Amino acid sequence: MVLFTKTQFNKPKEMMNELAKRVLHFPIIKISVGIGICFSLFVGIQNFVLKPFFYYMTDDRNMADPMIHCISFIVLLVSYYYLFRWYDKREITELSIKHFPKEMFGGFAFGFLTISLSIFILYLLGYYQVFGITTAHYSIKLFTLLMVAALIEDLFTRGLVVRELEGWLGTHATLIIGMLLETWHVFNPNSNLFSLFTDLIWGFTMSMLFIYTKRIWLPFFFHLGWNFAQPFFGSNLTGLDDMGSIIQSKFSGPNLLTGGAVGIECSIFTVIFLLLIGVVLYVRAAKEGKIIKGKRFRI
Question: What residues contact residue 172 under an 8 Å CB cut-off, 6+ apart?
């Protein structure tokens, strides 16, 4: 008769638990779970709780929608924070507010000024004319919509995908993937071959903003400043022409310089500035030892 000790009996169970743990913490699985749960909560609460409540309270969508957007913004951050506190059993450093004021004001100003510099060059060349300034064509609703859209992209693409893949594949492979992920913008109106190139540069620089700080706040506020600046100056935003405007203006000249129907972000000037930001951050990251080599991850 063969007798099994308690240790021998528990060994297969321990092996199965270890295998399950490895599967759940495999980067692709973790990314899928994170996006699936957080985005589902975000969409569910927004559509089945917030909208019914605020639309019942008021018929004015310009009043209701900003409140819905702001609460949805908080829901997304809170769900991400507590999910990964439980999932990873760690401090959620990508949401650390240690340098929040500097990254908030600096990021927004940097994104806004990058677009502003291209506008200034076009003005000097005679390709940008201002006719007036009014806030009648821009609303807080549009700004909060841009705020939520930027958070969704930066929290999931940079805070989750880039963070997980950099630890697994290393910085260089992650940068390539981060660039390719931004090509979904090709489905936006008025996209073209040059806007696809712009998307790749955007993916590189935005990934570097996260890789350099290891927090989402600098890329998020850069993104927000970038997106706000374009309709502010009367430009289309990533091919969208219904995002409002503050400065009433007219663009003229070659599409390569003005960005054409895509908007000023597709101007060759803007793309060069964006690339320079990414390159400078990469060089600084390399000097400071922030470029990570990939590691093998076995299940």
Answer: 291
